[in-house]
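Database export, one record per block. Field names are fixed; values are copied verbatim from the stored entry.
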Amino acid sequence: MSVELTWLGHATWHLKTGEHQLIIDPFLTENPSASVSPDDIEAQYVLLTHGHFDHVADAAAIAKRCDAQLIAIYEIATWFAEKHAVKNTLEMNLGGGVDLPFGRVTMTIAHHSSQLPDGSYGGNPAGFIIETEGKRLYFAGDTALFTDMSLIAREGLDLAVLPIGDLFTMGVRDSVEACKLLNASKVVPGHYNTWPPIEQDAAAWAELVRSHSQSEPIVPEVGKAILL
């Protein structure tokens, strides 16, 4: 069965796998690159990599409307339960994994920061490995380059989603180095072109990935599904 991945702008991703739908880091209402609103989203799971506004802004609205399970590091999941009355939360922590109806989710390290919109402590930032339909997908979240990405690659990766915007995350040059460490079959960029400070030439990025790694780069279009 195919897996569909759709970029919704910035660092928001919608994943459809079999009968299940996941949304990762939902930031739509105030996202200038988004083409849909939170009310357009259907999901049974909401995954959050860290607490910054541009990754969690629409999480509560989607989770409550869809009765979705919100999955995040302990501090973030409990914050949404206590502050936003999200009833169905799953608290995780770095290195932990959980089996779910669509497959398995493992929380990985990320090198970044994490603060919730009201200033509350957001725990550690994270990435996710999602195993579903025989595929292994890595969502790096907002992160700097780190050499332990080679450990994430041990069991092979069908896809890696990496930030390329620079300034707040790794930029183009470091993302190419990340491609070498991860050695994923396909790699997709995110967290770029939302605002001028993180503008990047994705086509030029793709050429660098082709020239310096074994991965196939895919430049996403907002709202258009990528079949995996």
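Remark 1: The first helix runs from residue 53 to 56.
Remark 2: Residues 136 and 179 are 15 Å apart (CA to CA).
End of record.
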